[in-house]
Task: structure prediction
Amino acid sequence: MTARREASSPPRLPGYEFLRVLGLGGFADVFLYQQELPRREVAVKVLLAGSLDDEVRSRFQSEANLMAQLSHHPSIVTIYQAAIAADGRPYLVMEYCSRPGLAERYRQERISVAESLRIGVRLASAIETAHRAGILHRDIKPANVLTTDFGWPALTDFGIAATTGHGAGATVGMSIPWSPPELLSEHPTGDQRSDVYSLGATVYSLLAGRTPFEIPGGQNSAQQLVARIERSPLPPTGRDDVPVGLQHVLERAMAKDPERRFSSAAAMGRALQAVESALRLPVTPLDLSDDGDEPVEPLPVTPSAEPEDATRVRSVVTLDPHAGARTTPGVPRPPDADEPTRLQGVHVVPPDARPEPPRPSAFVVPDEPAVATEDQRPGASRRTRVLAGVAAAVVLLGTVTAVAVATLSSDPPPRTSPTQDDLSGDAPQVTGGVVPAPHSIRATPQADGSVVFTWVNPDPAEGDRYLWAVRTATGEPTPQLTDAPTVTVPAEQAPGGQVCIEVSIVRADRSSSAQPAQGCSA
Result:
C-alpha cells in the first residue's frame, strides 16, 4: 500500500494566520487560515509546483478571474483572492465550507430522495451558470461539491489546480467513475452534455451510496469501470424509495450516446423539478441570472496528452456564452429541440400532428416540470405567473385530448423498423405494465467468442414473441424478433465476450412490456 504523503508547508501569507491542514489533493493542498481583516476563517488552496513559468502564471490568473466571475452563484464556492506566495506558489483564498462535503457523506449515510433532488437542482443551476460563462467543469463528482455553513451544495475545483501542467492549453481533471464514455475513449470528444452526465452520476452516487458502475464486493479496477461505463446499462440504485421517474432522469442524463441526454444542465434541472412536483415536494428553484433557456451549442473537445493516473487530464473547452444560433454549421441540434415533450408516458404533440408509435425501450423525461413553478425572472409579477400557469394548463389539456382523438381515429402509424414487419404490420404497443418483462437473463460465453443469452417469461401466453437488441455505447439499438426465449450474439458484437442486451415480451395482440429487461455477460 502506498504511504499517504505529507502535506506541503503552508506558505506565509500577509494578513492570514495558518490554523491547520484541511485536505490533500493530487495537484494542491488546502489549508485553513484565519484572515485578520475582515476576521473570518478561510480555505486557502496552494498549488504543488516546483517551478512555474510566466505562461503558466498568466493562465492561472485567467482561471482565477473566471472563478471569481462564477463565485457570485450561491452553489459555487466563493473566491476572495488569488495571488502568488513569497515562495512562488500560486494560491487561492476561498470561502470555508465547514460542513461535511458530499464525498464524506454519500458512503456513510443514507441521503434522502428529497435532499438528493434539492442538491441536483442547485448543482444543475451552478453548472448551467458556468456553461453560460463559457466554461466546462469536466470533473463534477462528490469530492468537488462542498457544503456551506447553511447547508447549500457548493461546486468547486474548476480545473485551476491542473494549471501546474505544461502544455498547449489549460487542462482540468477527470475522474473515471463519474466520467461519460466519450471522455474515456482513445480520442475523447465532449461538450456541455458531458457535464450533464457527470451531474447525473453524482446524484446517482448520493442515492446509491456508491459510484454508478461499482459492484459492491466485486472487482472495480479502472479498466473494469471503463468497460462497464462504455457498455453496461445503468443499474438501479437499489432503493425502494427512489421513484421510477427519478431513475429515468438518471438514465437519460447518463445515456451512452450524448445525443440522447439532456441538452443542457438547466434542462436536467427542470426534469428534477418535475420529479419533486410528482412527489409533492417543495420545488427547488433554478438559480439562474436570467430565464434564457436556449442551450449553449455544443463545441468539440480538443484532447491533450494525459498521464496514467486515477484522474485523467483533458483540455478545457471554452464555450461562447453568446452562441445562441441553432443553425451553426457542423453542430448538431440538441435532441430536445424538435422532440415533443412526454409527461409520465403521455406523449404531448400539437393538435394537428399524428402520434408517433411508442417504442418498448423509450422513455423520455420532460425538460419542463409537469407542475408550473414560480417564475424566477426579475420583475415577473404574480399576475403574469398565474396567467402563464393557466395558459400552460389549457395547452396541455388540449394537446392530450388531441392525442386521444388522433389515436382512436387515425390509421396505424408507419413502421419504424424493418424487424417489425413480422408483427402484422404494426409496431408493438406499450400497455403500461400489463405485459411483464422477462427476468433471469443469463449469458453463456461460447468457445467461438459468441454469447448465448436465455431468459424466463414470467407469464407465458399463446403467440408470445420477444423483441431484443444489443445495447451499444452510442446510437440506437437495432431490435430483432425471436420466437424462443434465447438468442446468440455473434463474436463480432461481443468483443472480449462482453455484451449487454435488452428484451421485451411481445404478445399476439402487439402489446409489449412497458420496460425491457436488461442483462450483460460477465
